[in-house]
Amino acid sequence: MGTEFLKIIDVEEAKKIIRNLFKETYKLKSENIPVGDAYNRIVSEDILSTIDLPIFDRALKDGYAIKSEDSFGANEENPKILNCIDKVEAGSFSKKTIKTGECIEISTGAPIPDGADAVVMVEYSEKLEESSTKDIAILKSVPPTEDISKKASDIKKGKLILRKGTILNPVKIGILSAQGIDDVNVFKKPIVSIISTGNELLNKNEKIEPGKIYDANTNLIKGVVLASGGIPLTKDIVKDDYNELKMKINGSLNSDIIICSGGTSAGVGDILKNVVDEIGEVLIHGISVKPGKPTLVGKIKDKIIIGLPGNPVSAIIIYSIFIDSHIRLISKSPEKGGNKRINFELAKRIHSAKGRMEYLLVQIKNDKVYPILKDSGAIASLSYADAYVKIPKSVEIVDVGEIVEVILF
Ligand code: AMP
Ligand code: MG
After folding, report:
1. Which of 184, 181, 152, 150 is CA-nearest to residue 167?
2. pLDDT digit string, tens, across residues 343-383
């Protein structure tokens, strides 16, 4: 039940339709997840501190909490002798108040006792009687607040600590944890169902038979969806059967996006267009691009459906050019690092299809560009492609020695 292509449109027009489709259909949602699982997620609201940090004045060093004025004038030759009245370790506190002439032995992280306003490091002290440890010689004069981390000096309660849109790196996760915050609202990632179609495709564990091939696309597309920040949901292979495909697509409408591959053309067995026509709306069928002319874009209710060409190389090129950036945007992933453009000399003449924008895989060797002249089913060629070259639809030949702009992967 093949049909004609709906209408072949230009690359720029296709990009516009896809941009609008994502804008109109996909609504950003947030979810609440444990802070410990939130690495690389994006916070979906401003987060205020819930407590002061530090929660109390605390010692920065092991030593003695004192009244600083008791140390004034002290040095190695003229130590000041203080009476040690208590000992406080991290995790506990002293009920005693320091009076003039007294000190309390203190550990790093312990709360500063009442009456004290400084800490003298243990290195600047001496226990006078090992047995009693009552008298402590202070060997250095310290100013008020010495070696004390003041309450709220790091973060004040109620202050903005993470702005909406912040990526949760390990440090930021640590800050939330120090605040006692156990879970956090982050942007939900879009769920992408992946459906490979074709009578020739073998399922996992099936033996190879004449005319059959292994399914490369399901895992290939799963990989690129992950790289874009989506959550892939791979489905079983579907035969070129109208009802089977319709059922599978209907069963995938709980995801945000459905990506099919294969069966997007206008020949016998190419049924995706008919299915989307019936249960949704086809917005693009046919883009003036090589490879990847038989690309389909549509919507079913408020969900996006993409039909990539079955050839793995075409599928990946179409995904990279038309889909990747949108999934990054809605999953709030960083823009792709690659896409760097450099000019090099062409080492081999290119003949390009007239009337279609061509994306040609190339290898770069010794600063020269070598086109990879394989068909778009040749998946292995992807693994040694360094970049691609865009050949405008008006250009038929690019000659040896011409300078071309390559877009690095
Ligand atoms: P189609 O888009 O269905 O016309 O398929 C175009 C070409 O891609 C055919 O040679 C298919 O056998 C091949 N193909 C389709 N789907 C896959 C797949 N999942 N894995 C590998 N090759 C595929
Ligand atoms: Mg097919």
Report:
1. 184
2. 999 999 999 988 999 999 999 999 999 999 888 888 898 89
pLDDT digit string, tens, across residues 124-142 = 999 987 655 579 999 999 9
Asked if 198 and 307 sit in the same domain, the reply is yes
Residue 285 CA to ligand 2 centre (angstroms): 16
Which atom of ligand 1 approaches the CA of 269 most closely?
3
Whether 3 is in a domain gets the answer: no
List the domain range (segments joined by +) for residue 275: 11-29+188-331
**CA distance to 169, 268, 320, 342, 386, per residue, from 407 (Å):** 30, 36, 12, 7, 9
Are 46 and 78 part of one and the same domain?
no
196 lines ligand 1 (CB under 6 A): yes
Task: Please state, in angstroms and rounded to a whole number, the distance separating the CA atoms of residues 195 and 360.
Answer: 26
Within 13 Å of residue 35, how many CA atoms lie on the same side as its CB? 15
Residue 1 pLDDT greater than 60, yes or no: no
In a domain? residue 37:
yes
Same domain, 259 and 398: no
| Tally of domains in the chain | 4
**From the CB of 377, is ligand 1 less than 6 Å away?**
yes
pLDDT at position 133: 59
| 376 and 402 inside one domain | yes
Whether residues 231 and 286 fall in one domain: yes
User: Would residue 159 count as lying in a domain?
Assistant: no
Give residue 259's pLDDT. Answer: 98
Please, are residues 389 and 406 in contact by the beta-carbon 8 Å criterion?
Answer: yes
Alpha carbon of 254 to those of 124, 190, 259, 303: distances in Å? 68, 11, 13, 9
Task: Decide: 30 and 188 in contact? Cβ < 8 Å.
Answer: yes
Could you tell me if the CB of 228 is within 6 A of ligand 1? Answer: no
* Same domain (yes/no): 264, 229: yes
**pLDDT at residue 216 above 70?**
yes
Bridge partner residues of 87 (DSSP) = 105
DSSP string, 50-89: SS-BSSS-EESSSEEEE-GGGGTT--SSSPEEEEEEEEE-
Whole-number pLDDT of residue 195 = 98
As a whole-number percent, the residues of the chain with pLDDT over 70 amount to 98
Peptide bond into 291 cis (omega under 30): yes
Residues 182 and 194 in one domain: no
- pLDDT, residue 131, reads 57
Residues 274, 309, single domain; the answer is yes
- The pLDDT assigned to 150 comes to 97
The answer to whether residue 285 sits within a structural domain is: yes
